[in-house]
Amino acid sequence: MNMGDHHSEVSSTPITPRPMTPRLSTPPMSAPITPRTKTPMVSTPPVSTPITPRTMTPMVSTPPVSTPITPRLMTPPIISAPPSQFHSPSLSRSPLLSFGGDHVEQASKTPRSRGSRTPSFLTPIIRTPRFITPLGSPIRKALRLTKLDPQDAWLPITESRNGNAYYAAFHTLSSGIGIQALVLPVAFTILGWTWGMICLVAAFIWQLYTLHLLVQLHESTETGMRYSRYLQLFNATFGEKMGNIFAIFPIMYLSGGTCVALIIIGGGTMKQFYLTICGGTACTANPPTTVEWYLIFTCAAVLLSQLPNLNSIAGVSLIGAITAVGYCTFLWVASVAQGKLPGVSYDPITASTEVGRVFNVLNAIGIIAFAFRGHNLILEIQATMPSDEKHPSHVPMWKGVKFSYTLIAMCLFPLAIGGYWAYGQMIPEDGGMLAALFQFHGRSTSQAILGLTCLFVIINAVSSFQIYGMPTFDDIESKYTMRMRKACPRWLRAVIRTLFGFGCFLMAVAVPFVSNLAGLIGGLALPVTLAYPCFLWLKIKKPKMYSPRWLINWGLGTLGMGLSAIVVAASLYVVIDTGLHVSFFNPQ
Fold it and tell me: Are 362 and 567 in contact (CB under 8 A)?
């Protein structure tokens, strides 16, 4: 029995370690069998112990994986929040949109308790700057169409957006009434009473209609974009290549070329003002030359041009508008009060040939078109206003335009009609109403009226220089900001504007007869005023073919382009046929 019990114990004990038997080369049944049976008992816990960490590994790694998911899921609700607005009182010189892509904006500061803190990963990632306002659906537009050039916060036209209807009226009046109105009676000497009035009324209504189109096109309800510059709108509609061919020259010419003409008129009027005030006394012994008067005017204009942006010259434009209304009123009232000149004739001046007569008529139409300029500044003026979905900028802008053009009509129509009634065919082509007043009524009119009229012309010319030079300032500074990606320093801005002013002075001295080319200048600028807005509206709005608006805009646009080409050709013919006293670098 002992042997049987022994064998039973031996056979039952190693049941557990049998799988380890193949690891032994000999199967002796010796005494060390007991520790071998204990070895599996000890090794069993280590085998089962690592099972727990292996199953726990996914549970430990789950929080790091799920942590960054939260901000990604919260991004869409932030985009669908109420749209941001343009109501920034004054955009700073720092960019409001970084070039580095998305940026993290800190949450609003509110009192916190010690126990609760907002996790940093809940801070929203703002992909759209706060000052962008989609004019259509906030959600749909914010996702794909809200874009704004970050340079707008650095450039003089859009640096400040706190304008209003009053500012718009001041700028529009200052740019809409100017020296070009003084030669309106000259057009009547060729067209006569009937056709002169028809052309003047038609041109006024036509340019007011195209002005309304530009005001409406400033804000796109489809893309939510604001086109703050005429050239920007043209390039966005027809492409940059077409803009460089058809738009950049007349727009920049209306800016720089007008500044040159203002120096010529302003400097010459300064000389006349000096002679009027002195009245033949000892102060006229050694008067400044014409070039020196140009230089004095340029220094005053350059000094005033250091004002930083378009909104900052609103007060200057107000003064310019008041003086423009003042001297227009003085000129036609003083001329009408003196009565008609003896032997005045209202028969239209006719050329000796049929071709000459036709070209003279077209040149007169160009003079009338030259009187209605300033469309190249309308989008720039409207860009200074705040705008949002509920209060778009075209509402106050159109109010300012209606008020200003009411005053413009009250000045231009009496000036043209009264001047032609008083002087008829004898009105001077060079200088228009101002030259006629001094030539025919210089002795019979009060010196105070003559002096005040000259002073108003000078002040208006200096004021208009600022607003007409602003697009050029903006364009030059944009080249710097695009390359350097930072705001133009104040010292560089002062240098740019000074160089521009004295560059215009050199042009005025080199080409002092530019004021005699009113018809040619009007023909070159005519598409910007009468034609381009119609084509822009057709391209952007896409009206139904052969609808009334489609027919009107196609007709006016085509007529404007054809008229521009004919007027330019006619003006060149008139200059060549009648002759032009060319005196380079010799202003008189």
Answer: yes
Alpha helices by DSSP H, 51-137: 51-66, 69-79
- The total number of residues written for the chain in this structure: 588
Q: What is the pLDDT of residue 143?
A: 33
The torsion angles phi and psi of 323, rounded to 5 degrees, stand at: -70, -35
Q: Are 246 and 544 in contact (CB under 8 A)?
A: no
Sign of the dihedral defined by the CA atoms of residues 232, 237, 242, 247, in that order: negative
Report d(CA 144, CA 139) in Å as an integer: 9
String of DSSP letters for 556-583: HHHHHHHHHHHHHHHHHHHHHHH-----
> H or E segment at 144?
helix 138-144
Residue-wise pLDDT tens digits, 40-59:
444 444 444 445 445 444 44
Residue 333 vs residues 73, 131, 417: alpha-carbon distances, Å:
73, 49, 11
DSSP bridge partners of 219: 226
DSSP code per residue over 453-476: HHHHHHHHHHHHHHHHHHHHHHHH
Q: How many CA atoms lie within 13 A of 546 on its CB side?
A: 0
Distances (CA, A) of 189 to 113, 423, 431: 84, 10, 15
Tell me the range of 5-9, 346-350, 468-472 where mean pLDDT is highest: 468-472
* DSSP for residue 116: -
Q: Which amino acid is at 464?
A: S
Roughly what angle, to the nearest 10 degrees, separates helices 165-176 and 447-484?
110
- What pLDDT does residue 282 have? 55
Q: Name the residue among 369, 304, 342 with its Cα closest to residue 571.
A: 369
CA quadruple 317, 318, 319, 324: dihedral positive or negative? positive
* Greatest Cα pair distance in the chain: 166
Nearest to 532 by CA among 258, 231, 294: 231
Evaluate whether 178 touches 460 at the Cβ level (below 8 Å): yes
Calculate the average pLDDT of the chain.
78
Could you please report the per-residue DSSP string of 200-234?
Answer: HHHHHHHHHHHHHHHHHHTB-TTT--B--SHHHHH
SS3 195: helix
Task: Give the count of beta carbons closer than 10 Å to the beta carbon of residue 49.
Answer: 9
Block residue for tokens 């010529």: 264
CB 218 within 8 A of CB 456: no
pTM: 0.74
Question: Are 530 and 560 in contact, with CB atoms under 8 Å apart?
Answer: yes
CB atoms within 10 A of CB 386: 19
Most confident range (mean pLDDT) of 35-39, 192-196, 254-258, 278-282 is: 192-196
